Amino acid sequence: MAGEVSWLSERARRIQPSPTLAIDSMAKAMRAEGKDVINFGVGEPDFDTPDNIKEAAFRAIKEGFTRYTPSSGIPELKEAIIEKLEKDNNLLYSKDEIIVSCGAKHSLYNIAQALFDKDDEVIIPVPYWVSYPEQVALNDAKPVFVKTHEENSFILKPEALRECITKKTKALILNSPSNPTGTVYTKKALEAIAEICLRHNVFIISDEIYEKLTYDGNKHISIASLNEEIKKRVIVVNGISKAYAMTGWRIGYAAGPRELVRAMAAIQSQSTSNPTSIAQKAAVEALKGPQDSVQRMVEEFDRRRRFIVNELRSIPGISCIIPAGAFYVFPRIDGLFGKRYAGYMIENSSALSMYLLKEVFVATVPGSAFGDDRYIRLSYATSMDNIKRGLQRIREAIERLR
Ligand SMILES: *Cc1c(COP(=O)(O)O)cnc(C)c1O
Fold first, then answer.
1. What are phi and psi for residue 266, nearest 5 degrees?
2. Which of 39, 64, 227, 276 lies 20 to 30 Å from 20, alpha-carbon distance?
3. What pLDDT score was predicted for residue 263?
4. CATH topology of domain 52-288
């Protein structure tokens, strides 16, 4: 553990490696040993990047588009992003309000670098995506956690938000559709949040990476699109990883106030420089080319989502709300706490995840990684066959508990 090495920076000793990636590497190690591991831990689409996008990358290589680009992204991609934001989100931006980074995660990190000072408070609704608190802490600011509840579809309530705002509050991190809960915020919920943030001068960092993955007629709304006033206080973060099955290409972007974008661009120019030239060309094709692959992916995710929720609900001790977006289910599992089997004692979400991995070779992520120990997260970005076999194993493992 880095925590025991005294000559490492205080910052390095404070940081926790991503727990979702940790489970993933454990599952992969077991698979390498020849175990038939079914992995519900992954946070990336199991589909291949569409061919038209790959072709655009091949073309870029052949045409020699292989050098440094402007560090905040090529104009052609910024234009494609501007078009996308107007078409999908009814948001108007100019090029100096857009920055392309090495993934949405990198955009978020640049925002944290450019926006947070020591002791600034940043509000993070729980359950949260694992990187938010760590990125806040890495930039010397303080994560302030506010609970959301299953009964309310894990939507942040205005009263709860109001209660945790202080003079030091700098920003709220909002993620809709949400990882891990799949929550899609309604317009009404967003309006209430926007009003409070405007009144208290709180910035909103809106992570919209799952916007294309919504079900049952739920539609993603960007909080920046509610009105011109709130737009000045919102930084929209999005990318191509999830919608176009392009996690490895590392292209994300942010749109927001030009002063902030300028500062982010300066930080990026002194740290990573430009995102990969070839991937930027591929991203242009992703955004401007045919969109039918997105639709097909959503239909397949939807089929899996309904199956997995029904299966989970039929296992005694587990309950599960149906997620409206993203590709995760977040079943409640604390009904199993205190139960045992062989040498295992299910005392928390980690113990359950560990039991499922070691006993029936099924990888899940404990809810503690997302700030709520009463749940576990399963990704359904894996084949229907894996889902069927995996759920059968989970059922058997849980029925063994006494
Ligand atoms: C996957 C994910 C990201 C990061 O996406 P990249 O563009 O691949 O960096 C950001 N936010 C959430 C909530 C995610 O699940």
1. -65, -45
2. 276
3. 98
4. Aspartate Aminotransferase; domain 2 (3.40.640)
Q: Which atom of ligand 1 is nearest to the CA of 239?
A: 7
Of 174, 127, 183, nearest in space to 369 by CA = 127
State residue 22's pLDDT score.
72
20 Cα–ligand 1 center, Å: 12
Spacing, Cα 111 to ligand 1 middle (Å)? 14
Q: Work out which ligand 1 atom sits closest to the CA atom of 240.
A: 7
CATH classification code of 10-48+293-400: 3.90.1150.10
Residue 105 CA, ligand 1 centroid: distance in Å: 6
Instruction: Note the pLDDT of residue 1.
Output: 46
Question: What does the pLDDT read at residue 42?
Answer: 83
Helix residue ranges per DSSP H, 33-68? 51-62
Q: Which residues line ligand 1 (CB under 6 A)?
A: 43, 103-105, 129, 175, 179, 207, 209, 239, 241-242, 247, 252
Instruction: Specify the pLDDT at position 2.
Output: 47
Whether the link from the prior residue into 180 is cis, omega within 30° of 0, is yes
Who's near 8: CB < 8 A, 6+ residues apart? 2
| Residue ranges in the chain whose pLDDT is less than 70 | 1-3, 19-20
- Write down the pLDDT at residue 359: 95
Write phi, then psi, for 205 (nearest 5 degrees): -95, 110
Rounded to the nearest 5 percent, the helix, strand and coil shares of the chain are 45, 15, 40
Instruction: Tell me the best of 205, 208, 209 to mutate to test the pocket of ligand 1, counting ligand atoms within 8 Å of each CB and taking the most.
Output: 209
Q: What is the pLDDT of residues 11-53, one digit of tens each?
A: 888 887 776 677 778 888 999 999 999 999 988 999 999 999 9
